[in-house]
Amino acid sequence: MRHAVEVFTGTIRDYAGSRPSAIGKVQVDGELKLTELGLEGDEQAEKKIHGGPERALCHYPREHYAEWAREFPELAEQFCAPAFGENLSTVGMTEESVYIGDIYRWGEALIQVTQPRSPCFKLNFHFNISDMSSQMQASGKVGWLYRVVAAGNVSSDAPLELVSRVSDISVREAAAIAWHMPFDDEQYHRLLSAAGLSTSWTRTMQKRRLSGVIEDNSRRLWGA
């Protein structure tokens, strides 16, 4: 199945009370170059936690925006793509229907799903909602990230087409295992077995299995 895609890139800017971010993105049409580090012209402010080879692209389902607008009716006009800082926006692809390790053809490129997007505190400042990151994580409406398996020219005119499914764990299930379940060694083992899972998520799940402890996510969700 093919999915039409809207494409967005962003540059770094300052946020009062927070650290610089490139979450504010603008739509781009026509052909772009996609490298192993992402779309040409797309920036990341803090490369230790954003971007890089396994987080080269961020995808967010467009249909979630109507749900967020109902949740925050007074801020409804904010909730439209690319408000969550996504590079790719589609209708018809959700966390339930997209799986860890899925490989999509996009123009000349191949991209692979690596992990759910891990919401961070910068969303709180971006939306001016004090707990937006926490609400996003709790909802499971988080989107997902890709690595670039084969670089090449891509375009907003080129659809996404699933070409390989290599695991049985959906993005939604991966997020539930990581954030919504009590400690469960068997489920962590299942997630670790998902082909294509990012190194950072592999590290986190393996650390849990060794320590018997779920790490503290408060710094990511709320900042220092």
From TrEMBL:
Ranges of residues in domain MOSC: 26-163
NCBIfam families in UniProt: PRK11536.1
Name of this chain's protein: MOSC domain-containing protein YiiM
The species this protein was found in: Yokenella regensburgei
Taxonomic placement: Bacteria, Pseudomonadati, Pseudomonadota, Gammaproteobacteria, Enterobacterales
